[in-house]
Automatic annotation (TrEMBL):
Domain EngC GTPase: 72-219
Gene: rsgA
UniProt KW Ribonucleoprotein keyword: no
One family name in Pfam for this protein: RsgA_N
InterPro entries assigned to the protein according to its UniProt record, in alphabetical order: G_CP_dom, NA-bd_OB-fold, P-loop_NTPase, Ribosome_biogen_GTPase_RsgA, RsgA_GTPase_dom, RsgA_N
Name listed for the protein in its UniProt record: Small ribosomal subunit biogenesis GTPase RsgA
Length: 291
């Protein structure tokens, strides 16, 4: 029996990395019966016939798990957005942050394409990133011409997952970091309008301090699993100031003696953050439940 980490899964075949040696494996029948699937990131025990025929016997308990795209045991969730093409939007950022927090992770914010942004846009992005730094997020604002080794080194050891909209440059970053890799990337920014991801599956690559995952990114739509009463927990500063509201279960919408509303008025909670909270709250409240 060997133990390794799943780095890729394509049509039912799981590639397992055992200290740099690769094995192609399949889950044993029992998993299928129990409707349990191994996912990329899992640490697994498997039996080996040869390097192309292994059978996964056991999946180690997951430390955490992202549902879409499926990947487990994530140490650093890197939320990638671009300054331009597509344009940086705090509305979209807040939505992605909420999704990350719903998986119980505090993500890092990485903004790309600094070189394409005008000086005004660069200033605007920098100012907004300061707002997020004040909330407790770590942020980086880079372009592909920067020292990517240095960019990655800021995160620390373990599995880092690059996640974010299509076209923000996740695969481009990996290609720069691993010159031999040659992952498919979008050739022209027009491709954005086709509404499809260039990267189709999750794959882990070994980096200096662990692994890094390229993903097709979660889309802004992957929001169905979040209930309106839990949303407030996923805005860090609203969660913190909300502890002082009169009602323990205050949703900070129309409740009396709501401390969150007071802090917005006093400028301790940024207005646009509160507005995005209310927008998302209403979106969830009006959502038609699918069964
Ligand atoms: N000028 C400039 N272009 C960049 C930068 N980063 C990425 N790009 C370009 O942006 C386009 C999209 O990059 P991709 O790496 O394919 O984006 P992705 O995030 O992997 O997209 P999906 O795989 O669809 O999720 C490519 O044409 C890149 O050359 C950057 O820092 N500066
Ligand atoms: Mg990609
Ligand atoms: Zn309140």
């Amino acid at each position: 029996m060997k133990t390794g980490r799943i780095i890729k899964s394509i049509s039912g075949v799981y590639r397992v990395d055992v200290e740099g040696e690769m094995y192609d494996t399949k889950p044993r029948g029992l998993f299928r019966k129990n409707k349990f699937s191994p996912i990329v990131g899992d640490v697994v025990d498997f039996e080996v016939e040869n390097v192309t025929e292994g059978y996964i016997q056991h999946v180690h308990e997951r430390k955490n798990e992202i549902k879409r795209p499926p990947v487990s045991n994530v140490d650093h969730l890197i939320l990638v957005m671009s300054a331009v093409e597509p344009d940086f939007s705090t509305q979209l950022l807040d939505r992605f942050l909420v999704i990350a927090h719903s998986y119980h992770m505090r993500p890092r914010i990485l903004i790309t394409k600094k070189d394409l942004a005008s000086i005004e846009m660069q200033q605007k992005v920098t100012q907004l990133l300061n707002v997020y730094e004040d909330m407790g997020y770590k942020t980086q604002f880079i372009s592909i011409n920067d020292d990517i080794e240095h960019v990655f080194a800021q995160w620390g050891d373990g599995l880092a997952v690059l996640s974010g909209q299509s076209g923000v440059g996740k695969s481009t970053l990996l290609n720069k970091y691993f010159p031999d890799l040659d992952i498919e990337t979008q050739h022209i920014s027009k491709a954005l309008n086709r509404g499809r991801h260039t990267t189709r599956h999750v794959e882990l690559f070994e980096r200096t301090h662990g692994f890094i995952a390229d993903t097709p990114g979660f889309s802004a739509l992957d929001f169905d699993h979040i209930q309106k009463d839990e949303l407030k927990n996923y805005f860090m500063e609203i969660h913190e100031y909300g502890e002082s509201c009169k009602f323990r279960d205050c949703n900070h919408i129309n409740e009396p003696k709501c401390n969150v509303k007071i802090e917005v008025e006093q400028g301790n909670i940024t207005q646009f953050r509160y507005d995005h909270y209310v927008q998302l709250f209403n979106e969830i409240a009006n959502r038609k439940e699918r069964y």
